[in-house]
Amino acid sequence: MSGQASSPPRTDIPDVVVSPEVFLAMGREVLASQPFSILVGARLHALSPGHCELHLPITPQLLQQHGFVHGGVLSYVADNALTYAGGTAMRVPVVTSEFKINYLRPAVGELLIARAQAVHHGRAQAVCRCDVLVVQAGTEKLCAMAQGTIAALPPREDAAPAPAGA
Questions:
Q1: CA 157 → CA 30, 90, 105, 129, distances in Å?
Q2: How far, in Å, CA of 70 to CA of 165, rounded?
Q3: Helix (H, G, I), strand (E, B) or coil at 75
Q4: In the chain, what percentage of residues exceed pLDDT 90?
Q5: How far is CA 57 from CA 47, 111, 134, in A?
Q6: What is the pLDDT of residues 116-153, one digit of tens each?
Q7: Helix (DSSP H) and strand (DSSP E) numbers for the chain
Q8: Residue ranges of E strands in 40-123
Q9: How far is CA 53 from CA 42, 79, 110, in A?
Q10: Are 113 and 62 in contact (CB under 8 A)?
Q11: pLDDT by residue (tens digit) across 14-33?
């Protein structure tokens, strides 16, 4: 990420270190708790702090009347990947505050790939971008680009305090 500014790490969050495999497993648990993600068949392929790669197999149910993947489906994968990138960069629960998507070409193929990264983050929000690619016959083609603002959720009032030293 040369030439890109990023915020210093947050100091109010305990430094918890987990292996990349455990980090990915934790992200997959979050995805598995999203009924819509289960419905469409989304899979979290890669996850690291500030980066996400989400896969979605293309099925006939995801197409619009012209045979392309529906724009709402492209928006879903971009939105979810942006949120993973922002949430893992800030290391707090988050939601999407806003995002914009540009549809560049019809998505026709076997698989959608959303690759997102946090470009900048602070305590309250992260600005992220995402490329949405379609794979057809083993070749990736860019079909959409998105940028969004991911907002940190306020701490839950019913949440138990973190143990000392955690």
A1: 21, 20, 45, 31
A2: 48
A3: helix
A4: 81
A5: 18, 4, 10
A6: 999 999 999 999 999 999 999 999 999 999 999 999 99
A7: 3, 6
A8: 43-48, 51-57, 94-103, 111-121
A9: 11, 12, 16
A10: no
A11: 556 779 999 999 999 999 99
Name the one residue in this structure whose structure tokens are 């988050």.
Answer: 94
Reading the block at residue 12, the tokens are 């109010």
Token pair for 56:
């979605």
| Amino acid, res. 12 | D
**Considering the entire predicted model, what is its pTM?**
0.84
List the structure tokens of 43.
């899979």
Place of tokens 């994968």: 77
Look at phi and psi of residue 68 and say left if phi exceeds 0, alpha if psi is from -120 to 50, else beta.
Answer: beta
* Residue corresponding to tokens 């980066």: 51
In the chain, what is the straight-line distance between the N-terminal and C-terminal CA atoms, in Å? 30
